[in-house]
Design brief:
There is one protein chain. By secondary structure, this protein is α+β, with helices and mostly antiparallel strands. It is 15% helix and 15% strand. It contains 5 helices and 7 strands. It has a 5-stranded mixed sheet, with no helix packed on it. Strands 1-2 form a two-stranded antiparallel ribbon. The longest helix is centred in the C-terminal third of the chain and has 8 residues. 40% of the residues are buried.
Length: 213
Amino acid sequence: MDILECPSHASAGELNSWRETGTHFYSRYKARRTSYLFSTGAFTDYNRNWSYYHDAGTTNIGVFGNNSNCKIAAITDGTSHTLAIGEKAGGGSTTRSSHYGPWGLIGLHTGVHGRIYSGSGGWLSQPPTGPNHFNNHPSWRIWEKDWCVNCIWRNDPQKRSYAWVFSSQHPGGAQFVMADGAVRFIPNTINYLNLVTLAFIRDQQPTEIPSKH
């Protein structure tokens, strides 16, 4: 489906099969590589279903997730301030494993989840108290380096990204669809705190995307 493939993504649409006896995360047959991930906040397909976190009142949830039941009313930061879908350039030499997605319309591990990591502890369960609350966390620079748009995973010598990281083959950033349907370009240089708050639907910090110059 052309709508699931970015023209700038060299591996988009490639046919891929890999099968192993028994059940395996990445077992697939005639899967097509796509170009987009759904924004799931800090969570991945390893985590429990979305409704659990919704009911628990955590702040680090995205629009989508396992068994997501998110409605527009739940996006209290505002739909224009919240990520819904973003680019992922997988395949070829762009990700640390050829098994990583995106794999559209097929239920594979790392197939459609797009993660913006934010650690654990108070940030996950309490609204942030301001920039210093986040910037002073001891792991702040690690998160920023590994999980920002188009980042290289842990100084990988081949400059590859990790499975759930949003990335593209556009220079300088990637395209995202906001929850209101608008398409916005987010630069690699975006402040990581801003990227985190864009990914979360109700962290009480509605964030604007920097204008592209």
